[in-house]
Design brief:
This protein has 245 residues and is of the alpha/beta class. The protein has a single domain, classed as 4-Layer Sandwich (Purple Acid Phosphatase, chain A, domain 2). It has a 6-stranded mixed beta sheet, covered by helices on one side. The chain has a 5-stranded mixed beta sheet with strand order 5-6-7-9-8, with helices on one face. Helix 1 runs parallel beside helix 2. The longest helix is centred in the N-terminal third of the chain and has 21 residues. The chain is globular. Bound molecules: manganese (II) ion. Manganese (II) ion binds next to loops.
């Protein structure tokens, strides 16, 4: 079979990034997508593709036109694209599934690929003693919150989101309140239950860990590590995308 590619935590539009770096990331991401078209059969995006995503009934952000076009090109070339929502881009509506042709999952998925059992989740909300976040997640994902936000004009809404994001986020720090441990914990549990591969993102720390017969892969990110996963039908590999930095 042709390889399946995995990528996560690209955080497009993160306001703390320099314009040049963002342009470079875009160029490299497009090259990566071309590689998938050339060599692969499937791309699995494991959350936080965008630093912030919100879509209205008739409106999507125009900054990412290049990305929509590229994803559509991939789909038209026969690439199956799965998109698992992360904690930054959980407001996914119908745009990617209906207009671009992606398979969108709000909470990840499990699937057998070429006889191997995969569990693919973003990995947020797995802190060992953090029920507050889980509660917040439940509330934010409720329909009424979405419909309230819909009444904010897009120009205002996106400016607010940017300002908020700039204040509250620090990508380089690993303040995770035991979340990384929680992720490892779950990965170990799931491999014990018989999963061959447990794939996550979220904490931006690339990891390739064997638990018994199973393997936990954390895909890292495309902010500092530029890592991605590849499944050739038998084995998983965690690789670094090479380019001049
Ligand atoms: Mn995340």
């Amino acid at each position: 079979m042709k390889p399946v590619y995995f990528i996560s935590d690209i955080h497009l539009g993160a306001p703390s990034l320099h314009v040049e770096f963002e342009a470079k990331r875009k160029t490299e991401l497009l090259k990566f997508f071309d590689t998938v078209i050339e060599n692969g059969s499937r791309l699995i995006i494991v959350g936080d593709l965008f630093d912030f995503w919100y879509e209205y009934k008739y409106v999507v952000p125009k900054n990412y036109f290049w990305l929509y076009a590229k994803l559509k090109e991939m789909v038209d070339n026969g690439i199956v694209i799965d998109y698992v929502a992360g904690n930054h881009d959980f407001f996914l509506g119908e745009f990617f599934s209906k207009s671009v042709g992606l398979r969108v999952y709000q909470d990840g998925f499990s699937e057998e690929i070429n006889g191997k059992k995969f569990l693919v989740i973003h990995g947020d909300g797995l802190a060992l003693k953090d029920s507050g976040y889980r509660m917040l997640k439940k509330i934010l994902r409720k329909g009424f919150v979405r419909s309230v936000i819909r009444w904010i004009h897009p120009d205002v809404g996106f400016s607010l989101a940017k300002a908020f994001s700039k204040k509250s986020r620090e990508y380089t720090s690993n303040k995770d309140f035991g979340e990384t441990d929680g992720m490892m914990h779950l990965a170990e549990k799931k491999t014990n239950e018989g999963y061959d591969f447990v794939i996550m993102g979220h904490n931006h720390i690339p990891k390739f860990e064997r638990f018994g017969k199973g393997i936990y892969v954390n895909l890292g990110d495309w902010l500092r590590n530029f890592t991605y996963g590849i499944f050739d039908g038998e084995a998983m590999q965690l690789l670094t995308w090479e380019f001049e930095r």
